[in-house]
Write a structure and sequence with these properties.
Associates with the EF-Tu.GDP complex and induces the exchange of GDP to GTP. It remains bound to the aminoacyl-tRNA.EF-Tu.GTP complex up to the GTP hydrolysis stage on the ribosome. It is built from eleven helices and eight strands. With 279 residues, the protein is of the alpha+beta class. Helix 1 crosses helix 2. The longest helix has 18 residues. It is elongated and about 85 Å long. The two termini are 47 Å apart.
Length: 279
């Protein structure tokens, strides 16, 4: 049995970031073999990941990055189980590593992002699993968005758990930074379900019509009037829940569509992505 010194434990801790006792235990089990000890620690992280796979991740960080030319934005959400973990430096560093990897690789999907090789040749997912072993909680990239447009605006809410990317179209020569941020803030606050009524899925439309009919029926309206009343309520739903038709929260005399057009004739939004870490 190899003698495990404090220097050995400290060396493994520096290599892996794992706790002192975990490092000592791994080195003892590996009979002083550092590579074998690292594998033991990695397996420990995987065991925790498997054991806690069904746990709820209701805390974490949302981060965004927009390219220097303003035409691309990345948005990531790294979730954990408890608020204290979200404040740990290692967790915050991992979130930044995930965002940096997204920027570097321009990954098209979350799966591609998690598979991306890091400087040590291992995947991003392996790094996440390693930190699970160290922290003892489930960690999960719950969202990844990659948006390209004429101009992309971003906003991260003050709680760092909600974020938005907005794709602006027909920018022309206008400075749209301010209006882009305002619209992104609107999306965080008002949670639109779609860009306009054409983007609302059929199941939602059907549900809203049925709700409208049920409400009208409960109010004693004639059966022959229910469809017309439900359509009126559906139009109200579009106004309140589709971004371009929503009233601007800072000035309810204009809709988002009108706000954009006032900033630059023809300016509009081609897409938006909203992510949030929720319980």
């Amino acid at each position: 049995m190899a003698a495990i010194t404090a220097a050995d434990v400290n060396k493994l801790r520096t290599m892996t970031g794992a706790g002192m006792m975990d490092c000592k235990k791994a080195l003892t089990e590996a009979n002083g073999d550092f590579e074998a000890a690292r594998d033991i620690l990695r397996k420990q992280g995987q065991k925790i990941a498997d054991k806690r796979s069904e746990n709820t991740t209701s805390e974490g960080l949302v981060l965004a990055a927009v390219s220097e030319d303003g035409t691309n934005g990345k948005l990531i959400a790294l979730a954990c189980e408890t608020e204290p973990v979200a404040k740990v430096e290692d967790f915050k560093n991992l979130a930044q590593q995930i965002l940096a990897t997204a920027v570097k690789t321009n990954a098209a999907s979350k799966e591609e992002l998690l598979a991306a090789a890091q400087e040590d040749g291992r995947s991003l997912q392996e790094h996440i699993t390693d930190l699970m072993g160290k922290i003892g909680e489930k960690l999960d990239v719950v969202a990844y968005e990659n948006v390209t447009a004429e101009r992309v605006a971003s906003y991260i809410h003050s709680d760092n758990k909600k974020g938005v990317l907005v794709a602006l179209k027909n920018v022309g020569g206008a400075d749209v930074a301010s209006v882009g941020r305002d619209v992104a803030m609107q999306i965080v606050a008002m949670k639109p379900v779609a860009l306009d009524k054409d983007g609302v899925d059929a199941a939602t439309i059907e549900r809203e019509i049925e709700i409208g009919k049920d409400q009208a029926r409960a109010e004693g309206k004639p059966e022959a009037m229910l469809e017309k009343i439900a359509q009126g309520k559906l139009n109200k739903f579009y106004k309140e829940n589709t971004l371009l038709n929503q009233e601007f929260v800072k000035d309810n005399s204009v809709t988002i569509s009108q706000l954009l057009d006032k900033t630059q004739k023809g300016l509009t939004i081609s897409d938006f992505k909203r992510v949030a870490i929720v319980g």
